[in-house]
Every structure is written in structure tokens, then in C-alpha cells.
Amino acid sequence: MNNYNNNRGHYSRNEGGYSGNNYGGGQRSNYGGNSSQGNNGQAKKRSGCGMKDEARNGQPCVYGWRYVPGHGLFKFVSSPAKEPATKSERWLKFVTNITRPDGSTFFADTLWDTTKKRLKFTKSGQVANPYASNGGYWGRGGFKMKIRNR
Asked: Could you give the CA distance from residue 111 to residue 108 in angstroms, rounded to a whole number?
């Protein structure tokens, strides 16, 4: 007689693995940890971005936030520089005030892409897109600044 049907180490597909031993039987749960049960398994939103056309002295204003796990919540507000013109008509210079999770702030130079309607952070290679379909995005965008030596 086989001993496969006793409670010690038999395999059951309904339980998701080996049960009755230390092989981790039972149902699997969210391994990624990036989703919660209340939002149908969609990933939590970790960044956002928006734009107000005339928020600061009649100038456009781009604002956003980004949660970085292990570091905290970063926020930024960006508006055109005093001299926003560049050599190219496609780009406008913006000045960005970034707030760290501890409350300290620093300024960053950014460029507004007038054709794609995105804010590009020149040194970090990040992109802020207030027109993204998911309510805005701030993060890595596959963007690299091309610096030409002339």
C-alpha cells in the first residue's frame, strides 16, 4: 500500500504546493509587495505631475511629486527662468525648486520641451510629464542630454 495519501508530504494542487511539511504550502500572496488588495492588483502610484498655465505671476508652473522607497517623498515646483530663451525654439529654460523628504530644498536647471510638453532634468536625466495618461509622471525617462563640443 502506498503512503502517498497520508498527511505527511503529499502534493495537492488545490493547496498550491506541498502541505504538511516545511516546503511552504498554502496559497501564494502578493510577492511583489507593490500592489494592494483594495485597488484590483494595480501598482501603487509613486509619482505624479501637473501643470498650471498661469500660476506664478502669469507664468506657467509645473509641479510634481515622487515617492522613492527607502528615502521618502520628493516634491518640485518649476517655472520659467528670467531669461527662458535658448538657442533652439524647441526648448525653454525653467528653474526648479526641489524639496527633499527632510524639508531641505535645492534648485535644479531644467528644460521645457515645447513640442513634447515635458520637463527634462538636465543633470539627472529624469523627465516630468504633466500630460501622461496616468495623472502625470516624474522619473526616469530614457532621456540623455547630448552635449556638443564646438
From this structure: 10
What is the DSSP secondary structure assignment for residue 15, as one 8-state letter? G
- pTM of the model as a whole: 0.63
Give the HSE-up count for residue 93: Cα atoms under 13 Å, Cβ half-sphere. Answer: 11
Q: What pLDDT, in 10s, does the model give residues 13-49?
A: 444 444 444 444 444 333 345 544 555 667 788 899 9
Q: Render pLDDT for 127-147 as a digit per residue (tens, 0 to 9).
A: 999 998 888 999 987 555 554
Alpha-carbon distance of 43 to 9, in angstroms, equals 36
Nearest to 90, CA basis, from 120, 58, 127: 120
Q: Where in the chain are the domains?
A: 1-31, 47-140
Calpha distance 136→117 (Å, rounded): 12
Q: Which cell goes with 62?
A: 509645473
Other C-beta atoms lying within 10 Å of the C-beta of residue 17: 14
